[in-house]
Amino acid sequence: MKKVLQVFAAVLVVLLLTSCELFQAPPLLKTVTLDGSLSDWGNYVYTDGATDSRWGANNEIHKAGILFDATNLYIAGEFTKEGYNNFMVIVDLSGVTGAQDTTKHPWGRKYKFEKGDVDFVLETWGDGYGAWRFTSAEATSVQVTLASTETSDGHKVVEIAVPLNKLGVTDPNKLSVKAVFVLTGGLSDDGSKQYAGDFYPNQGFEAGDGGYNVPVVIAKTISNPLKK
Ligand SMILES: [Ca+2]
Ligand SMILES: [Ca+2]
Ligand SMILES: [Ca+2]
C-alpha cells in the first residue's frame, strides 16, 4: 500500500510540474513575412487616428505594431512624413539593461520612458533607416532587415526584423517588449524642446506645435505580450 501511495505521490508531482510548465507557456507571439504588407499582422497592428497629428496630414502615424518570435523582433508602421521627420520606435526589452534616456542618440533625440529603460531605437523614412542598441554607455548601430512599400494614397508602409541576439536578448521565451511610436522631428535651436508630431499610443499631453520640454517623458506604451 505504501508503495502505491509513493507512486501516486510521484505521479501527482509530475502532473503538477507539467501544469506549471503549461502556465509558463512561452510568450512567443508570431512570425511575419517582410513583404511591406501588414495583412499578416492581424490584431498585432494597431490603428492610430488619421487626423491627430500636430503637423497635419503629411506627418501622420496611421498604423504601428511590434511583436517577436524566437529569433526576431518585428516592427510595423504606416505613416506619412515630410523633410527630416521620421517614424521612430523606442523599445524597452525585459531582461535587458539599456539607457535611462535617448541622450546618446547620434541625431540628438530627447525621449525617455516614465517607467523602464531604452534598449533599442529605430527611425525610418520609408526605404531607409537608422537603428541603435542603447546601453548605459553608448548607442551602437544595429543592422536590421526592412521591407517598404507605399499605398495608393501615399502612405509609407514598413516592416522590419531585428535579430533578438543583436539586442542582448538571451531567452526569447521570457521576453516581453514595451514600445512607443513617434513621428519625430528634431530639437529646437536652443535644445530646450523636442518636436514630435504624432504618437502611438496617444500620450494625452499632445498640444500646440508639438514642441515639448526635453526630455519628452513617455507615459503610455504598448506591451507584448499584453499585460494581464
Ligand atoms: Ca507582411
Ligand atoms: Ca495619427
Ligand atoms: Ca496618435
TrEMBL record:
Keywords: Signal. Residues 1-24 form the signal peptide. This is Carbohydrate family 9 binding domain-like. It comes from Fervidobacterium changbaicum.
